[in-house]
Amino acid sequence: MFRRLPVSHHTNSSAAGGRTGVWLIGARGSVATTAVAGCAALAAGLQPPTGLVTETEEFAASGLPALPSLVFGGHDTAGTPLPKRAEELAAQGVLPHWLPAAVTAELAAAEARIRPGGPLPGDGRSRTELIEAFAADMREFTESTGVARTVVVNVASTEPLPAAGVWPASSLYAAAALRAGCGYVNFTPSTGMHLPELAQQAAASGLPYAGRDGKTGQTLLRAVLAPMFRQRALAVRAWSGTNLLGGGDGAALADPAAAAAKNAGKARVLADNLGTVPEGEVHIDEVPALGDWKTAWDHVVFDGFLGTRMVLQTIWQGCDSALAAPLVLDLVRLTARALERGLSGPRPELGFYFKDPDGATSSLAEQYAALLAFADRLASPAPGEGEGR
Amino acid sequence: MFRRLPVSHHTNSSAAGGRTGVWLIGARGSVATTAVAGCAALAAGLQPPTGLVTETEEFAASGLPALPSLVFGGHDTAGTPLPKRAEELAAQGVLPHWLPAAVTAELAAAEARIRPGGPLPGDGRSRTELIEAFAADMREFTESTGVARTVVVNVASTEPLPAAGVWPASSLYAAAALRAGCGYVNFTPSTGMHLPELAQQAAASGLPYAGRDGKTGQTLLRAVLAPMFRQRALAVRAWSGTNLLGGGDGAALADPAAAAAKNAGKARVLADNLGTVPEGEVHIDEVPALGDWKTAWDHVVFDGFLGTRMVLQTIWQGCDSALAAPLVLDLVRLTARALERGLSGPRPELGFYFKDPDGATSSLAEQYAALLAFADRLASPAPGEGEGR
Amino acid sequence: MFRRLPVSHHTNSSAAGGRTGVWLIGARGSVATTAVAGCAALAAGLQPPTGLVTETEEFAASGLPALPSLVFGGHDTAGTPLPKRAEELAAQGVLPHWLPAAVTAELAAAEARIRPGGPLPGDGRSRTELIEAFAADMREFTESTGVARTVVVNVASTEPLPAAGVWPASSLYAAAALRAGCGYVNFTPSTGMHLPELAQQAAASGLPYAGRDGKTGQTLLRAVLAPMFRQRALAVRAWSGTNLLGGGDGAALADPAAAAAKNAGKARVLADNLGTVPEGEVHIDEVPALGDWKTAWDHVVFDGFLGTRMVLQTIWQGCDSALAAPLVLDLVRLTARALERGLSGPRPELGFYFKDPDGATSSLAEQYAALLAFADRLASPAPGEGEGR
Amino acid sequence: MFRRLPVSHHTNSSAAGGRTGVWLIGARGSVATTAVAGCAALAAGLQPPTGLVTETEEFAASGLPALPSLVFGGHDTAGTPLPKRAEELAAQGVLPHWLPAAVTAELAAAEARIRPGGPLPGDGRSRTELIEAFAADMREFTESTGVARTVVVNVASTEPLPAAGVWPASSLYAAAALRAGCGYVNFTPSTGMHLPELAQQAAASGLPYAGRDGKTGQTLLRAVLAPMFRQRALAVRAWSGTNLLGGGDGAALADPAAAAAKNAGKARVLADNLGTVPEGEVHIDEVPALGDWKTAWDHVVFDGFLGTRMVLQTIWQGCDSALAAPLVLDLVRLTARALERGLSGPRPELGFYFKDPDGATSSLAEQYAALLAFADRLASPAPGEGEGR
Ligand SMILES: NC(=O)c1ccc[n+]([C@@H]2O[C@H](COP(=O)([O-])OP(=O)(O)OC[C@H]3O[C@@H](n4cnc5c(N)ncnc54)[C@H](O)[C@@H]3O)[C@@H](O)[C@H]2O)c1
Ligand SMILES: NC(=O)c1ccc[n+]([C@@H]2O[C@H](COP(=O)([O-])OP(=O)(O)OC[C@H]3O[C@@H](n4cnc5c(N)ncnc54)[C@H](O)[C@@H]3O)[C@@H](O)[C@H]2O)c1
Ligand SMILES: NC(=O)c1ccc[n+]([C@@H]2O[C@H](COP(=O)([O-])OP(=O)(O)OC[C@H]3O[C@@H](n4cnc5c(N)ncnc54)[C@H](O)[C@@H]3O)[C@@H](O)[C@H]2O)c1
Ligand SMILES: NC(=O)c1ccc[n+]([C@@H]2O[C@H](COP(=O)([O-])OP(=O)(O)OC[C@H]3O[C@@H](n4cnc5c(N)ncnc54)[C@H](O)[C@@H]3O)[C@@H](O)[C@H]2O)c1
Ligand code: NA
Ligand code: NA
Q: Which ranges does the record mark as transmembrane (chains A, B, C, D) (predicted)?
C-alpha cells in the first residue's frame, strides 16, 4: 500500500545535540510498542508522519531531535517481548501487517534495553530502594547508549487512585527520573509527579516535566466543542459520554478506581471551558471484542435562543494506540529539547497533549497557540547565547 | 417555565446613539419572525439572552445599541402577517407557546412597517426603478421612525445562482441599501453585494457591510473540527454530510440551483482549514415532517499514525430559526455600531457568523479572536477623537 | 395542528360488557397522566389513535372495551393533582399544549378517584392490613363507578430489588388486585406478582395477569435487531447501551438497585434471541435536562463472513410517556377482555408489550404473531358458548 | 487469530448429487473473489461459517450441496486475475491477510475457468450471437468440469437502467443461462431476467431463478425496522438515508442512472412494510477512502401517541463483500438444490436475500419463515418419489 517515501525529517539539532534516550515505563504495552515500531517506520521512510505534530513545518526550526536519533528502552512488569507484541498489534490492524517484519531489528534492539519494572506483589524493597533501583536502570541506559540526554515517559497501565500516604508505582518512577536527571512525561492519568512530597524535589531538579493523560479522543473533541458552545453563548445543560475500549487499557479501566482518575480529567475540560459543570456522566466500558479500537459517544443537550432545547452527538471511532503513539513521540522531542535548552519545571505549553494539563488553558485552540509559541522559544539561540527558565 | 428575569442589557450607547432601525428583507420569514419576537422577549426580560454573543461581557464596553432600542420593519413578498407567523412557529415549538401572545404588540408594530418586496413575476419595472423603490421604502422607514441609522439584513429565501448578467433580487436590495445609506448584512447564500457591478458603489459608499450565509449548524461544527484535524496533523480523507431540513428553507434548497450556492460555502470551510479538499459530498434534503428542525449528519474519514483509518461522526439536531435569530441580532448591533463609528467596507471581523465570509480566516477560534478585537475597536473613543477605517 | 377527526372506535362489546375500570398504581405519574389525558383526547376525536395497537383493524372483532368506556382511578403517594401534572407535561412537550384544557373535566374526574397509596415511611400497618386497605379501595372504586370489571395497572416508580423475605409495595398491590377480583398488569420492572408466596393465590384466583416492564425503546429495538443477526448467522460479539432519561423515572433509576431490575429485562432479550450473552454493559443515566425525553444509544459489534468485524449503532430519541401510555391502554383493554372471557393466569400472549415477559418468546415478530392469535381468540364466542383457559 | 476448526459441512447430498458448478458473471469482482476465497477457506476448515445461513442447523436436512463440492468459473470483462484481486482485498482488510496465500490453489483453479465477458465497446456481434457465445461458455464449463448442474450468478457491476427496447448485458447473460440449462440468481439491481421478452422463455425452461439485488445493509435493517413501526401502530413520517461506499460498486453507483435501479429496491421495502411511502430521500455517495467498507445512515421521523414527534437513527458500518459473499454461497446452494428437485420459475421463498424480491413479502421475519419452509421442502424425498413445482 505504501512505498518508501522521500521524507526529510527535521534534523537541524541532531548533529549538535547527539542522540536522545527515550525510557518508557510500560515499554511492552500497546502505546509503547506502537511508538517504537512507528518511529522506526518513519525513520526508514516507510510511512508518512501522519499524526506527528512536530513534523509539521511550524516546528522545523525548533531544533527538535530527529526521529532516527531516538534510542528506546524502558521498564515493564510483563514479559511478552516487543517483536511479539508488534505481531499481535498487526493482527488487530493497529500496525500495518507488514510492519513488524520490516522493523524487527529496531524492535529487538529496544527489547534488549527493557528492564524489569515493579513493584510486583511480594517485592520487599523499601520506597527508597525501589526509586534508587529504577534510577540506576535509567542512568545505566543513558551511559551505555551514549545518548546526550534521556526523557522518561509513563505509558504504563492506569493505576487506581492511591490511598493517602501511599506512593504509587508511577510516583516511584517519577522520583527515579528526577534522580537520574531525566525529563519526564506522564501520558497516563496516574499520579506520577502529582505528589506533594515530590513537588520540592521537582522544583529543585532543574528538569522539565509534563502531564497528565494523553488527550486522544473524547476529550480532544470536548476541547474544541466546549469552546464553540461558550463562544456562541449557547447554554450547555448536559454532556454525557460512553467510551467502549478493548485492549489492555479497557481492562485496567474496568476497575472503577482506575476509571475515576481518567474521568476527573474528562470533567475538567468541560468545567474549564464552559465555566460550569453540566449534568451528565461518563462511562468507560471494557469491550474486548473491539481490540485496540475505541468508540466514544457523546451526547450534548444545550439551550439555544428563547430556551429551545437542541442536541449534538458525536461518535469517535479510533485506534487507541495509533492515536497515542505520535503524541508520545512529539512529547519526547519537545521535552528533550526543553531539557537541552535548560527549561525546567512543569511545562504548561504542552497542555495541547493532555486531558488534565499542568496549569494550562482548556481550549484546544489556545493550547495550540501556546504550543506554537513554545516551538518558537525552542528554536536555537544565537551562538554563545544561553537561556534560563 | 421562565419567569421575568433581572436583565440589564448593555445600554451605554443607546442614549447617545438613539434608536436603531432594522430593515429585514424577508421580514415575514421564520428567521425574521423569531428575531423580532425574540428581541421583544429579551427586551421585556421574559427570557435570558441565550445565544446572543453580543450580550456576553466581552461586548459590554463596545457601545452596541441596546436590544429595546431596535425598531423593526422590512420587505416581504408573502402576505401572512407576523403575529400569525409567530403562532405557527410556536405550534412547531420554535417559540415558547406563550410567547406570541406576550409580544403581540411588538409583532403588530413591526408588521405595520413591512412593505411589499419584489420583483414578483410580471413586475415590469426596470432594475433602476426597483432599486429606487426599495431604497425609498428604507429611507421612509428611517425618517418616519426617527431612528439614528438603519441596518438592512437579507433573511429572504435562498435564491438560485443567477444567470450571468442578471441582477438577482438580493442584489437589488443590496444596491438599495447603499443608496439609502444603510449598513448591510447578507445572512443568506444569495448574491447580495457580491456582484462586480456593485463593488465600486459599495467602496464609494462609506458604509459597512458583511456576509455571507449565517453559520448555524454543520458549518459551525466544521469550523472547529477541521482545525482540530489540521493541528493534530491527522489526514482527513473524506468528509461527507447530509442535511435534513423542513420549513421554508428546506423547500427552497430542494432546488439544486439554490443548494449549489449553499454548498459552496460549506466546502470552503473545509478547503480553507484543511489546505486540501477531501472526498465526499453534501446533501440538503427537504423533509417537511421536521418542521423548523434540522438534522445534520457528518461522516469524516481520516488517517492517523501509520495510516490507520479512523472515523468521526457528528449529528446536530437544532432549531434553524432559533439558531439564526440571535446571530441576526448580533450582526445588526455590530454593524450599526460600525456605521456609527464610521467603519466602512466589508467587515471580515464578522467572519465568525458566516459560512462564506468576506476575506476572513476559516477557523472559528481565530474568527472569535478577530471578533473580540473588533469589540474592543468599537468601544467608545476618547472625547473629541474620531476614527476612520 | 390537529382537528377533530372522524374516529370510530371499536365498540362492539361496550354495550354488552358495560364500562371498564382502570385502577392505576402511580396514578399521578407521567405515564398515568398521559394515559388518562390521551384516552380522553382519543375518545373525543381530538387526536388519531397513533401508537394504539388495539385500534388497528386486526383487533376490530376482538370485543375490546371502547376507549370512551374506560373509567380511571388509582393509588398514588404523591399529591400533585392530575390536571396540574398534565400542565407540566404539556410544558415539556409531552402533551400538546392545548390538551390539558381540552380534557380538564376527565382529568378532574379521575383525580377525584385517586386514593392515598403506601406504605409511606412510618406506616405501622401490617402486610395484611395494607393489602386489605388497598383491596378495599379497589372494590369501592368498582362498586361506586358501576363498572363491569376492573384492571389494576402498576405504573408506579420502579422499586429497588427487595431484600429476601420482604414484600415490596408492588406485591402488596398485586395481592390486593387478586383479593379484589381484578385483572392485573405490571408495566414496571418491580416485583409485583413475581413473588413465590403470591403464585398459589394467583393460580387459584381465576384472574388474568401480565408483565413485566413495558418495552418502549432500546429493548423494543433489540427485539427486532437481535433476531436479524441470528437469522443471518452473524455472530454478535458485544452489545453495549446507554440510556439517558430525565423525568421521574430517570431519578428512580439513578438508584443502582432500581436500575438492576430494569437491566435484567434488557439482557434477557439478547440472551433469548442470540442464544448467547454478548459482551457489553447497559447504563441508565439521569439527565434532568431531557425532561420526559429519553435517548438510547446502542453499539453492536458483530462478526461477518471470514471474521470481518462490523458495527451497527442505533440512536432512539423518544418521549417516554408517549411511548408507554398507548401500551397501557392496549394492555388494559386486552386484559379486561380476557377477564370477561374467563381467561386466567399469566398471559404470555402479551409478551409483545414487555421487556421481561411471562414465558413468551423474545422475538418481536413472533410476539406479534402470538398477539394476533390472541386477538382472534378474544373475539366473541357464539351465543351461549363459554370458554375456559 | 483463527485455527483450523473441526467443521462438518452438511454433506448429505453431495455424494448422490455430485459436484455443483457456480458460474459468476463478474467473476473477478470483489463479491466474487470473496465468495471463491471464502468458500475455499471454509471448505478447508480455516474459518467458521459465520454469515452462512445454509450452515445453520435448520438447513441440515435440506440436501444442499456441500461447500467443498462447489466448482467456480465465470465471465468478466476485466483482466486482473483472481489471486491478485484477493491480495488487494486482503490489503483492505476484507479478507484476513493470510488467506490469499492459504487458498491460492483454489483461486488459480477458478481463474483458469474465467472467460471474457461482454459486450465491450466496438463488439459487433448481434444479440443472438452474444447470447449463444455466453451459453456456449457455460455449457463448456459444465461439461469439462463434470459438475452435475450449474447455477449462474450475476455479481457484475450495476448497470444503468437500460433504454426501452435495449437488452442490457445482464439480460444477455440471463438468456444464456436459460439456454444452457442453468439455475440463475441475480444478486445485482440490473435487469437480468426482468425483461418481458424473457418471461416466456423462462417460464418454458423448467429452471429456477431468483433475484434481485442482495440485501446486505440499509435495506436489511429497514426490513426489520419498518415492520416494528407498523406493528406498534407508530406513524412513520419520513425515512431518509445516506450510503457511503468505496470500492468498485461505489464508483458504479456514483452514476445516477445506476443508483436509480438500486434505490427503487430500497423504496419498495418501506412502501410494502408501511403501507405508505414516507417523506425522505436515499443517497449513494462514492467515497473511495472507505475502500470496501460501507456506512449507511438512516434517519426516521415518526409520530407516537398524541402526535409526539420522535426519531430513530441507525448507522451500519459493514464490509460490503463480506456481507454479500455468504449470501451468494447460500443462494447457489439453495438454487442448485431446487434445480435438482425440479422446482422451476421464480423462487419467492428466497426473498429473504433480496432488496427487490420476486413477489415475496417485505418483512424479514416473514421472509425468514418462508425460507425455513423452503428448507423443509428441499429435504430429500422418500426413495423413488419425485416432485414437480
Ligand atoms: N491509547 C490512548 O489513546 C491513551 C490515551 C491516554 C492515555 N493512555 C494511557 O496510556 C497507558 C498505556 O496504555 P496501553 O493501551 O499501552 O496499555 P497496555 O495495557 O497495552 O500497556 C501497559 C503496560 O504497562 C505495563 N505495566 C503495568 N504496571 C507496570 C509497572 N508498575 N511498571 C512497569 N510497567 C508496568 C504493563 O505490563 C503493560 O505492558 C494507559 O495508562 C492509558 O490510560 C492511552
Ligand atoms: N435558519 C438558519 O439556520 C439559517 C442559516 C443560514 C442562512 N439562513 C438563510 O436565511 C434565509 C431565511 O430562512 P427562513 O428559514 O427564514 O426562510 P423562510 O422561507 O421562512 O422565509 C423567507 C422569507 O423570504 C421571503 N421572500 C422571498 N423572496 C423575497 C423577495 N424577493 N423579497 C422579499 N422577501 C422575499 C419569503 O416570502 C419568506 O417570508 C434563507 O435564505 C436561509 O438560507 C438560515
Ligand atoms: N415511560 C416508559 O417508556 C416506561 C417504559 C417501561 C416501564 N416504565 C415504568 O413505568 C413506571 C412509571 O414511570 P413514570 O415515568 O410515569 O414515572 P413517574 O415518576 O412520573 O411516576 C411514578 C408515580 O408513582 C408514584 N408512586 C411511587 N411509589 C408509589 C407507591 N408505593 N404507591 C403508589 N404510587 C407510588 C409516584 O408518586 C409517581 O406519581 C416506572 O416504573 C417506569 O419504569 C415506563
Ligand atoms: N457487496 C454488497 O453488499 C452488494 C449488495 C447488493 C448487491 N451487490 C451487487 O453486486 C455487484 C458486484 O459488486 P462488487 O462490489 O463485487 O463490484 P466490483 O466492481 O468489485 O465487481 C464487478 C465486476 O463485474 C465485472 N463486469 C462489469 N461488466 C461486466 C460484464 N458486462 N460482463 C462481465 N463482467 C462484468 C467488472 O469487471 C468487475 O470485475 C454489484 O452490482 C453490486 O451492486 C453488492
Ligand atoms: Na414542543
Ligand atoms: Na464493492
A: none
